Amino acid sequence: MVDYSSLRGKLPTNAECFVFESIPSTNDYLSALPSSNNIQVCVAREQTNGRGQYQRQWQSKKDSSVLFSVRKNFKTATSLNGLSSVIGLAIIDVLGPDYGVSELKLKWPNDVYFNNQKLAGILIENTVQNKSQSVVIGIGVNNNIKGELDCETPWIDITQILNITPKIETLTAKIINKVIKYCYRFEKHGLDTFKPMWSCCDYLENKKLELSHKGRKVVGVAKGISKQGALLIEINDETIEVFSSEQIKLI
What we know:
Layout: E1 15-20, H1 26-32, E2 39-44, E3 65-75, H2 83-95, E4 104-107, E5 111-114, E6 117-129, E7 132-142, H3 158-162, H4 168-189, H5 195-201, E8 208-213, E9 216-225, E10 231-235, E11 238-242, E12 248-250
Parallel strand pairs: 1-2
Antiparallel strand pairs: 2-3, 3-7, 4-5, 5-6, 6-7, 8-9, 8-12, 9-10, 10-11
Helix pairs in contact: 2-4
C-alpha cells in the first residue's frame, strides 16, 4: 500500500502538506484554501475528478500515478508566461538523471512524452489575491497503470519504460522538490535560464502543424518558443507566435 506519512519530512520547511487517500481534485483543494505565504502541497493516492487542460478529464487509477498539486504565490509583477513549460522540464529533470528515463520530450506547452506517448501532464491555474498571484500547479505522472485507461491520447507509464516500478512515495517527493526549486528559479531569472534545456527536449521542433491564421487554415513548422513562452511557427517567410495549444494540430 502507498504510504505518504513520511512525505512532509522530505519537503522544504516552509511547505504545508496535505495528504488524502482519495479526493476529487488536488488543484481544487488547494484553490479553496485561505491564502498563505507558505508553499502548499496536496498529494492524493486517488483523484476522482482530476482535470487536464481545457476541462478534459485526467485519467488515473488509485496508487498508479503521481498525483499532486503545489500552490505558490508570485509577485504580481512576475510574468508567468512559460511557467507551465518550466514545470514540464522539472519532471524531465527528475526522471532523466534520477531514474535513467532518457529521450523524454516536452510537447508544448507542458506534456511530457516518451516515444510519442504521453507520460505526464500539467494543469496550471492562477488567481490574483492580496497583491500577489496565487498559482496552483497540478501534476499527474503515470507510474504503474496496470491495465487500460479510457483515454484517446496514446499513453505510457514509467514501469513500461524501465521494466521496474519506482517507489511512488520517493518519486513524488523528488518531483515536488524539483518543481518548487524550479518555481523559485523561474521567479528570479525568468524563462531564459531554461531555454537551453527546452531546446534539447522540444517534441514539436520542425514538425508540421495545422492552424488558423488570418482567417484560413494553414500549415506551418514549429520553430521553438519565444521569450514569452509562446510557440513559434514558421509559415512561408513569416514567423508567428501561438499562445494556446488549442490553436494547433500536429499533422
